[in-house]
Design brief:
Strand 14, helix 19 (541-551) and strand 15 (553-558) form a beta-alpha-beta unit. It is built from 24 helices and 25 strands. Strands 6-5-8-7 form a 4-stranded antiparallel sheet, with no helix packed on it. The protein has a 4-stranded mixed sheet with strand order 15-14-21-20, covered by helices on one side. A 4-stranded mixed sheet has the order 23-22-25-24, covered by helices on one side. Helix content is 42%, strand content 16%. The protein is of the alpha+beta class and 746 residues long. The chain binds zinc ion (2 copies).
């Protein structure tokens, strides 16, 4: 009995039988303890004459014969079936035998230090694959078992002399011909089995024939040689090889660490003395939707084509890039990919569609309607500043192989473009004609979409090409994938303006929250919001206008401090009242609460006041009262970080009428859509309204008409209408009829 670390106490007795010819642990122990190496089994798994009792029997079928023999000899202690792990073929489940064979090795241990040094020259993403997994593997490096006892594969290029054992490695066809006995055969022979095996060489030592060994080469050697073999270097393509070696970047999954990542490094270190790639991005594994590793036996394998067919290849790509670092495991499944589609790609598409719809209405031509610097609004200059900033962010991130930050930056930019630039510019596009401001808006959005398609091309190649093709003119390169990647333009940056817009978006977001809290509908104009946002906060008039419009308020007041908007309420101080007044403290407290801050301050100006409470005279002193800040009811306060916003919710008659008008205009817009009118169709608006709404309609008919593109307004619904609806707005019943305006009518 020998001690060995590979035996454990969990299974069986803690004593195992060992056979050095049938297992790596057994073999190593055999070497260490100088045990006899006994091999009674041939390559077909049958016992040989070395074990006469079972000669010719397949090893698994010999069990009964061996058991009988043990019984006969009276040495069988007990017989019982025993379940244990066993190697089996991963394809067909056939049980396998461990079998010690002679093999050819590459002596990688001779270049171990060089390989460790070359590994350190590679940028690993994540770095721990290089320092950890591969580093550990190299630190404990073993020689590479190169030969395989199979038929198909790259033939091992070794010839051995029958007579004297001389061995030669052939490195080219030229060498093969040089050493071959039949030189004509060697010149044209197919270099694979069985053909190559017909080529015998002449031994340089003894002149006898040399035969090729029967082995083929480990397939990892083939893939691990691609840095050189792909060019058939050094026989051909010297220049191509030199230009492309070492590779900038390779990418494979984590499980290739000891596979391709290692074999590339090993062959290149031996042949070229350096690492064959500069950067290596290691990807994680795909999990199913519940985060479980996919496997055929569990039946939870997700076919990427199923997702691609439903959501598109770009949605899957965007999800994989944006969800987490490439080396993290990824959940796959419809829902997560659907999210990428809805949140990003649909927003992109909607933004493009908005542009395309109006560009076709106005017949926008990027070669004629060019960008005029002086006509740009703050909004235009801002989106260009954001564009060049995201160009830098995406480029820097990609240079660092950080796709997550790159996609996050692009996602934030698209949000700014869609939910702020386009949203705040809509009215510029709705206006009639092609004024300078409208051209500026078109030219800006056009250029931004063009550049965005280029920025997105490496991430979502189909969608970006789709957008680019629809935007490009004949003067542009024919594919987005042939364009230069956009470059950062420091001159387009306007950090101050970006700060203002970021604040504006925050104010709008807080303002909407405040409106929600106050339950005031969006179309009801309000007088003002008051904002404090730190000492340096400032907003140019143009930016303020954007906030006014978006929040539907008449004014944005920026102030350093909101406290002056708060009122004060007197609050009783029970710590002084209680001990001094005892049972009368409560009555005193009630009295204090009933006073206004102003009157109680006046009363206590002298330090104390004697007041009549329920027929008694009670003395109230200055320290019996504290004052608490209280927000007057008209305000709603919302805050985020140092940004605090007060929404003034008072609605006077003037504001109410404005709200009414906007509500009516909105409902008529919806009717236009329901009736299927084109956005440019002019209409005739007819209405009937009860007494309570008559005045408002009369006073505002021109404004409503211009909002809804009505060429004529009639205060009686007569004749045929294309759509008629009746609605109740704040108690006034309004009946509206619409029909498209026929030029003959005019
Ligand atoms: Zn099999
Ligand atoms: Zn020889």
């Amino acid at each position: 009995v020998y001690a060995a670390s590979f035996v454990n106490m969990e299974d069986g007795t803690g004593i195992v039988h060992t056979a050095p010819a049938f297992g790596e642990d057994d073999y190593q122990l055999g070497l260490e303890k100088d045990l006899p190496f006994f091999q009674p089994v041939d390559l077909s798994g049958r016992f040989t004459e070395a074990f006469p009792m079972c000669e010719g029997m397949f090893v698994k079928q010999a069990d009964d014969r061996i058991i009988d023999d043990l019984k006969e000899r009276g040495v069988l202690y007990r017989l019982a079936p025993y379940e244990h792990d066993y190697p089996f073929c991963w394809r067909c489940d056939t049980p396998l035998l461990y079998y010690a064979l002679d093999s050819w090795f590459v002596k990688t241990t001779a270049v171990k230090d060089q390989m460790i040094a070359n590994n350190a020259s590679i940028n690993w993403y994540p770095s721990h694959v290089g320092t950890g997994r591969l580093g550990d593997f190299l630190a404990n490096l073993k020689d590479w078992a190169l030969s395989r006892d199979r038929y198909w594969g790259t033939p091992l290029n070794l010839w051995v002399c029958d007579e004297c054992g001389e061995t030669i490695a052939i490195g080219s066809r030229e060498e093969l011909v040089e050493h071959a006995i039949d030189k004509e055969l060697a010149k044209r022979v197919e270099l694979h089995r069985p053909y190559i095996d017909k080529v015998d060489l002449k031994c340089s030592k003894c002149g006898k024939a040399m035969h090729r060994v029967t082995n083929v080469i480990d397939a990892w050697f083939d893939s691990g040689s691609m840095h050189t073999a792909q060019w058939h270097y050094p026989f051909d393509n010297i220049e191509e090889f030199e230009e492309s070696f070492p590779a900038d970047f390779i990418c494979e999954a984590m499980d290739q660490t000891r596979g391709w990542f290692y074999t590339l490094l090993a062959t290149s270190t031996i042949i070229h003395g350096q690492a064959p790639y500069r950067n290596c991005v290691v990807t994680g594994l795909g999990l199913d939707e519940d985060g479980v590793k996919m496997s055929k036996s569990k039946g939870n394998v997700i076919d990427p084509w199923d997702m691609i067919d439903v959501y598109g290849a770009d949605a899957l790509r965007w999800y994989l890039y944006s969800s987490s670092a490439p080396w993290k495991s990824k959940r796959l499944g419809g829902d997560v990919v659907k999210d990428a589609l809805y949140k990003f790609l649909d927003t992109l598409r909607n933004t493009y569609d908005f542009f395309a719809l109006y560009a076709s209405i106005d017949d926008f031509d990027p070669r004629r309607d060019v960008l005029v610097e002086g006509d740009l609004t703050a909004l235009d200059r801002w989106i260009f500043s954001r564009l060049t900033k995201v160009t830098k962010e995406a480029t820097d991130a990609l240079d660092g192989y950080d796709v997550v930050s790159a996609t996050a930056a692009l996602d934030a930019f698209l949000d700014d473009l869609s939910n702020w630039y386009v949203r705040s510019s809509r009215r510029r596009f709705w206006r009639g004609g092609m004024g300078r401001d409208k051209v500026a808006a078109y030219a800006t959005l056009y250029r931004v979409l063009m550049e965005l398609s280029k920025l997105l091309a490496p991430f979502v190649p189909f969608v970006s090409e789709g957008i680019y093709q629809r935007l490009r003119t004949e003067d542009d390169v024919e594919s987005v994938h042939l364009c230069r990647y956009p470059e950062f333009d420091a001159d387009a940056m306007d950090t101050d303006l970006e700060g203002q817009m970021a604040l504006a978006r925050k104010i709008v977001s807080l303002g909407h929250q405040a409106r929600n809290q106050a339950q005031v509908r969006v179309r009801q104009p309000l007088s003002r919001v008051i904002v404090s946002a730190g000492e340096d906060a400032h907003l140019d008039a143009e930016v303020v206008t954007l906030i006014d419009t978006e929040l539907n308020v008449e004014k944005v007041e920026l102030t350093a401090d909101l406290s002056s908007y708060f009122g004060e309420v007197p609050t009783p101080n029970f710590r002084t009242l209680g001990p001094r007044l005892g049972p009368q403290a409560n009555a005193a407290a009630e009295w204090i609460k009933a006073q206004s801050a102003e009157s109680i301050r006046e009363a206590l100006a002298g330090g104390a006041a004697a007041v009549e409470i329920s027929g008694r005279t009670i003395e109230i002193k200055a320290d019996d009262v504290t004052f608490e800040a209280q927000l007057p009811k008209q305000f709603v306060l919302v805050e985020e970080g140092e940004t605090r916003l007060l929404l003034d919710t008072r609605i006077d008659d003037r504001l109410r009428e404005m709200g009414w008008v906007r509500e009516i205009a909105h409902r008529i817009q919806v009717m236009r859509k329901d009736a299927g009118f084109d956005v440019t169709d002019r209409i005739v608006l007819s209405y009937e309204v009860g007494e309570s709404g008559a005045g408002v309609m009369k006073r505002n008919r021109d404004e409503i008409a211009s909002e809804v593109l009505a060429t004529a307004v009639e205060d009686k619904i007569k004749g045929e209408q294309e759509i008629v609806q009746e609605f109740d707005v704040d108690g006034a019943i309004l009946k509206v009829g619409l029909r498209r305006f026929d030029t003959k009518e005019g």
